[in-house]
Specification:
alpha+beta
Length: 339
């Protein structure tokens, strides 16, 4: 005590990727088609018809997609479970809204049938999830959807258009916009993946571990918001924790490499974040959180996350540079530079 001393510390250092301009410009990628086929259009119109469908009583046995009006009583050791019971319940066969075992029994059921089923309550029943229950079901009616005819009258009912042709053209344009946006996103992802493949650096295990744990905790938080545990979500998806963590680590490795690659591009291009860009990002974040921009900014600065936000903006700008200078071709055609 009271004298000087020396020490040696070993720390992990975040790697730096250095790119030459030729490393990130001229990347080749294919763009999915943004064309809308007649099949795409018909499927979208059928989904619109589904929204205006009416239910009518039918004489045939219940099939998948039909609905039954039923009285359902769920019990555990003769004690009724109110949240799984009800009178005149309208239940879609095949939806597995209550339990898969019930849906199997409902297929082929007719009006007046009384069904007795043993089932396991799914995750959405919270604390009761996984409980074995006895279901007694009285089928009162079998109903099927009756879709409206695809004609001018339907167009007037379902939209602001007077004719079916006008409705079809409007749906076509909206689908085209959606497919173009999806194609743009696919190009960005493919270009970024090609850039990531050019990254050849040794990554500290702790860096990957930290990103992996961050992804696991995010998944856990999403599950808890839905009132279940991460373990219950994995069990329902038939995924064991080892495989889940392995997948999370693979995604973490790609994410870290992507960040390093884009940071390398940003340095090569001399990209910076302006105060205006940072303000816009804070305002967008505040709007999504339902809080004031000043409050969000103070919170970000207090926790040091304002630097992380600035990094996100720089990486987005770097990706734009890479995409704008990529050689993009429509799938099935030779590549040509897009300006």
């Amino acid at each position: 005590e009271g004298t000087g001393f020396s020490f040696t510390a070993t720390v992990d250092v975040r790697p730096r990727v250095e790119f030459a301009e030729s490393d990130y410009k001229g990347i080749r990628a294919q763009r999915p088609s943004g064309e809308v086929s007649e099949t795409d259009l018909d499927e979208q119109l059928d989904r619109l018809r589904e929204r205006f469908a009416e239910l009518e009583v039918v004489g045939h046995p219940a099939r998948r997609g039909d609905f039954v009006s039923a009285d359902i009583r769920a019990t555990v050791h003769d004690q009724e479970i109110p949240e799984a019971s009800g009178q005149d319940v309208l239940y879609e066969v095949g939806s597995e809204a209550l339990a898969p075992e019930l849906d199997k029994e409902l297929e082929g059921a007719r009006r007046g049938d009384i069904l007795k089923v043993n089932a396991t309550l799914p995750e959405r029943y919270g604390e009761r999830a996984g409980q074995e229950v006895s279901l007694q079901v009285l089928v009162k009616d079998v109903k099927a959807k009756r879709l409206p005819a695809l004609d001018d009258e339907f167009a007037r009912t379902a939209s602001e258009f007077d004719t079916l042709e006008e409705l079809r053209e409007d749906v076509r344009q909206k689908l085209r916009g959606l497919k173009e946006a999806q194609a743009d996103a696919a190009v960005r992802d493919r270009v970024l993946q090609a850039l990531v493949e050019r990254v050849d650096v040794d990554l500290p295990d702790r860096l990957i571990d930290a990103e992996t744990e961050s992804r696991v905790e995010s998944a856990r938080a999403r599950a808890e918001q839905q009132g279940v545990t991460l373990e219950q979500v994995l069990e329902a998806s038939d995924v064991d924790e080892l495989r889940f963590r392995s997948d999370a680590r693979s995604h973490a490795l790609r994410a870290v490499k992507a960040d390093l690659a884009l940071e390398g591009v940003a340095r090569a291009e001399g990209l910076e974040v302006t105060e205006e860009e940072l303000d816009q990002a804070v305002q967008a974040l505040a709007k999504s959180l339902g809080r004031s921009p000043k409050e969000v900014r103070r919170s970000l600065e207090a926790t040091g996350r304002i630097t992380s936000l600035a990094g996100d903006i720089i990486r987005d700008k770097a990706l734009e540079v890479v995409v704008e200078n990529a050689e993009v071709a429509d799938e099935g055609r030779s590549a040509s530079r897009e300006g």
